[in-house]
Amino acid sequence: MPSRPDPVLTDLAAEAMTLWASPEQERRRRLWADHFNGRTREVPVSCAMFQGWQDLVWQQILPEDVFVHKTGMARLIETHLRHTLWRARNIPDDTPADPTLKLSCLPALAADELWGVPLAYESPEVAGGAYKPVPPLQEDTDLSRLRWPEFRSDEASRQQQEAQVRELVGDALPVVFQCNALHNGPFEWAVRLRGMDNLLLDCYDRPEWLHALMDHLTEGMVRYHRAREAAGYAVGLAECQLHSPWDDLPPGQERLLSGAWGYLHAQSAASYGPDTYAEFVHPYNVRIAELWGKVYYHGCEDLTRKAAIIRDLPHLRQFHVSPWSQVAPIAAALPAHVVLEVHSHPTNVLFLWGEAEMREELVRLTDGAGDHLFNLKLCDIQTINADGGRALIAWSRLAKEAAAACRG
307, 140, 303: which is closest to 213 by C-alpha? Predict the structure, then answer.
């Protein structure tokens, strides 16, 4: 322990670690691991709050006068622990209260560092105003300007942050460092570099050029993630924790991509039909999916007709069924071992509905999933309408009831 640990933080850390060791938390961890590995038919429930973020939700739940520390690492640790503990005390779902502190050691990146072209924005001179990305690829010949990104981490920052944590709480908290500048969706980089309006036309006007762009982006991402893995920054569950709250890590693969969850997506391709998606998006996601031990496919858009394509992703284990997708057709399209992450509509839950409407939707969702493996999710919680979290608590309770009822 440091010579002068912070008593507020060490007390909070001790409480969080005691909670983590409790039988209830062990039950939750085992439930999710069994769920993702086909060892249970039980339906887990997750009210997925963005823990650690200083966003409107947490400002509504925990006012500023609750916090002892106002800045720096001490504030970051206190925020993480108070969020974790409040959630565990108040939200009656199945999400484990993981006390692990997740820090970033991503270095500052130049605007053209990743792909060799500038990533500029247009923005009004107004604080908090809107902004618009400026796509750098405007001509066919611009493709020759691209390069592959190189993985870099800020090891000096890592050492400094580790020293700060140990000075404040000693070894009381587990700490992991994340360092990923690319994420895992090559099509989203195509949108950033080319612009979606252009990509809609490229499918027809220059399909070979678009395939060349997607190939370059995909190869660059594969190289980047392999280098990240070699540097020790493929950190198990930290890759996809909001959507895979807990899982068994294969022994010896704790820092390998093959032991981690991959988060695949192409949300900006919502305006592509299934055939266009199958040609210009899916083959490149396949190459990314091959890196990971398990794959979660995310899409807040309607994926009902694309599920029959996405089902062929290597290592696919969980599929996001958004409020705009249809549960029953997706359940019919996906293999039995792929878990459905079935989402309630967050806006309706948080702003419009009472318990009767929440219950009605949950019954409809569980009926649609039928006998398929699935969990119930409330996510994208950006505000709680200043109700102190009552809607979150009510939804979690009703979802647990619906989950128990549908499995009898």
Answer: 140
CATH code of the domain containing 28: 3.20.20.210
CA-wise closest residue to 92 among 403, 395, 407, 405: 395
Secondary element (H or E) of residue 319 = strand 316-321
What are the residues facing 104 on neighbouring strands?
178
Q: What is the pLDDT of residue 53?
A: 58
Evaluate whether residue 2 is within a structural domain.
no
In a domain, 37, yes or no: yes
- Say if strands 316-321 and 339-343 run parallel, antiparallel, or are unpaired: parallel
- Residues of the chain with pLDDT below 70 are 1-3, 51-54
Residue range(s) defining the domain that contains residue 394: 7-406
Tokens 């560092």 appear where?
A: 113
The tally of domains found in the chain comes to: 1
pLDDT at 306: 98
Q: What is the DSSP letter of 184?
A: S
Query: Does residue 396 lie within any of the structural domains?
Result: yes
Model pTM? 0.95
The pLDDT of residue 127 is 75
Segment 275-292, tens digit of pLDDT: 999 999 999 999 999 999
Q: Is residue 73 part of a domain?
A: yes
Beta strands in 153-308 (DSSP E): 175-178, 261-265, 294-298
